[in-house]
Structure formats: structure tokens, C-alpha cells
């Protein structure tokens, strides 16, 4: 008799986050995920009681990856406050995490519990930004404004389709970041 292997919980989570990023919460369907993974639905129910439990696990994973993991990595890699702000932005809004973040933001517009979780995540991110910016700016209003501008730049830049004259998008983002982090 051959032992049956179950699809690991993390594989389901990764597939669910990819589906969420691609199509929002309505795209997170057990049958479609099982088909994309080439497995049966039974393995899903070994790890999750139902779809809602799975959606909650997806949000928990997103929150952990986009806050705890990012902040731990930034602190481990070190550097001055400006380097940490840059690294935190690059990691938080990376090509892996940004699509999920944007999907959660869209979902939060229609679901109060998701909105509460998003608020908690954003509050943690903003508190970290304030603390870092507060090491080179002293006025509380300026600290708040810079943190808001930095956070807005990171979230909104993918939605801006404008051209930038002779500059690349990357160059403009670098210039904007330099302005936000100036002494």
C-alpha cells in the first residue's frame, strides 16, 4: 500500500493568495484551486474547515508576510533610517506582495472585517514610517506628512499611467523618494 501525501497547507495558501491577487476574493474557489494544483478538494478540507476559514488564513498570511516578515528583514539587514524606509517600501510593495495588497484594499471596500484588518496593517506600516522619519525630521506635522506621502507614493504609483518626459518611472520614483527622505 502506498501512503497518500496531502498537499501542504502552505501550497494551498500560496495558490489562494495568487488567486486573490488575480481576481479578488470571488476568484478564491476551492474547486478552481484544486484543479490548478492538480489535486482533489479533499486535501483542502484536511487543512481548512470551509472557504471562510481559508479566506481568514489568506488574510493572516498576507498580514504576516507584509508586516512581520518585512519589518524583521528590514531590521535584520540594518542601515540608517533612510535605507530602512527604502527597503521597507521595496519589500512591502514588491512584485510578489503588491498584487495581493491591492486585492485586499479592493476587498476591504466591501467587507468591514477585511477593512479592519487592512487598517491594522496600515497603522503598523505608518507607525514604522513615522518612527524612521522621526530620526531625521523633528516636526510632528512634517513627520506625518512625509509618512503619508511615502505610503501614498508606494500604493498609488502602479495606478499612474503618465509618462515622465525624458525620465523613466524608476528615476521619477527615486527622485520622489529622495525628496521625502531629505534631511
Entry keywords:
single chain; mainly alpha; Tetracycline Repressor, domain 2; elongated
Account of the protein in words:
It is a single chain. The protein is mainly α and 183 residues long. The protein has a single domain, classed as Tetracycline Repressor, domain 2 (Orthogonal Bundle). The protein has 9 helices and no strands. Helix 4 packs parallel to helix 7. The chain is elongated and about 55 Å long.
- The proportion of residues forming helix, as a percent range, comes to over 70%
CATH top level assignment: Mainly Alpha
Give me the secondary-structure category: mainly alpha
CATH-defined architecture? Orthogonal Bundle
Determine the strand fraction and express it as a percent band: under 5%
Counting DSSP H or I runs of 4 or more residues, the number of helices is 9
Number of distinct beta strands = 0
Shape: elongated
The biggest beta sheet reads:
none
- Average pLDDT metric: 93
| Alpha-carbon distance between the two ends | 68 Å
- CATH topology assignment: Tetracycline Repressor, domain 2
Query: How do the SSEs run, as a string of H and E?
Result: HHHHHHHHH
